[in-house]
Design a protein that fits this description.
Blueprint lengths: L9 H5 L2 H8 L3 H14 L23 E5 L7 H12 L3 E6 L10 H7 L2 E6 L5 E5 L24 H12 L8 E3 L1 H7 L2 H11 L6 E3 L8 H20 L5 E2 L15 E2 L11 H8 L7 H8 L5 H7 L8
Parallel strand pairs: 1-2, 1-6, 2-5, 3-8, 6-7
Antiparallel strand pairs: 3-4
Helix pairs in contact: 7-8, 8-9, 11-12
């Protein structure tokens, strides 16, 4: 039975992962069916949401539509998963970007855009092999808007990440990236100002892929910004916004989703051949443990122990 956010304090809700998930998320298959039903019954292609927010042009095109919101669209493992899920369920993916937002070293997601980590598997003792590469002077650019940051060799940070995304996800169309900076600014100051309008887009116009983390610093955003906006919209409209986890539940909040395939190091340095050969042979994997099980069936016991309780690759 679906829990109600209005029946619980936001603190209580974020303290219980199962209850939070039941209150906030909708299974992807159900979300697709529900979106189609709502669009059939209502004026889904209107230029205003139920809260009166303007609907950006990319969401007024052909559907059904899914949205992933990140400051810069990039080819990390989270985005790769969302792209695949959208394709498998017939969803046209739009990546909302926020180029006018500011780079902050204290924000995990933003920091990873400036210092991406390239994942190359598990070591003998089960630890991840990750090489981190700083693309610019992180401390000097702390607080700078993303659109003003230049990576090494003078390339803009935005262009760098878009280049990785085009290389890793060639199926994405050119109009899949949408800089929503002006739209966010028009809705209010800061995330508290624009988030109600943003969440209202997912009543009838699209499905949101997002994972709201319930631990560490990210929990404060979930509790103080997202949940009030979600609760307000649901209370005023009687409709639950359609939100699907961007990350797998058994790996929720794991740093892995911010990492990049090692082969993309060719854009900044050498990369290993094994993953490239695996891709050319159609091998698919989604988590570090699954990679080791598929690409290294004779891996060390420590790696095998990490895979023991994982489900098969989600196709």
């Amino acid at each position: 039975m679906e829990a109600s956010t209005s029946d619980l304090s936001f603190t209580d809700l974020t303290a219980n992962r199962e209850r939070f998930g039941a209150s906030v998320y909708t299974p992807l298959e159900e979300a697709v069916v529900t979106l189609r039903q709502r669009q059939t019954r209502g004026s889904a292609r209107s230029d205003r949401t139920a809260l009166g927010a303007a609907v950006p042009a990319p969401l007024r095109g052909p559907g059904p539509i899914a949205v992933l919101f990140r400051q810069i669209g990039s080819a990390n493992y989270e985005t790769r998963r969302v792209v695949r899920l959208a394709e498998e369920h017939g969803l046209r993916l739009v990546i909302f970007e926020y180029h006018a937002d500011r780079f902050l070293t204290r924000n995990r997601d933003k920091y990873s855009l400036g210092r991406p980590g390239f994942y190359s598997g598990l070591g003998r003792n089960g630890g991840r092999r990750v090489e981190y590469i700083s693309l610019f002077d992180l401390d000097a650019e702390n607080g700078s808007p993303f659109h003003a940051i230049k990576a090494f060799r003078g390339e803009s940070l935005i262009d760098f990440h878009h280049r990785l995304l085009a290389a890793e996800c060639p199926s994405l169309s050119g109009d899949a990236l949408f800089d929503a900076s002006e739209w966010f600014t028009a809705q209010g100051t800061g995330a508290r100002g624009y988030y109600p309008a943003f969440i209202s887009l997912f009543l009838r116009h699209a499905i949101l892929f997002e994972t709201f983390v319930l631990h560490a610093a990210e929990c404060e955003f979930t509790r103080d910004v997202f949940l009030p906006a979600f609760d307000k919209i649901k209370a005023e409209t009687g409709i639950k916004p359609l939100i699907v986890p961007a990350e797998r539940e058994d790996w929720e909040g794991d740093e892995f989703w911010q990492l990049y395939p090692e082969r993309l190091q060719r854009h900044v340095g050498p990369y290993r051949v094994r993953d490239r050969e695996a891709d050319s042979n159609g091998v698919q994997w989604e988590t570090p443990a699954e990679r080791e099980r598929i690409l290294m069936p004779t891996a060390a016991p420590a790696s095998a122990r990490l895979t023991a309780n994982l489900v098969a690759v989600v196709r």
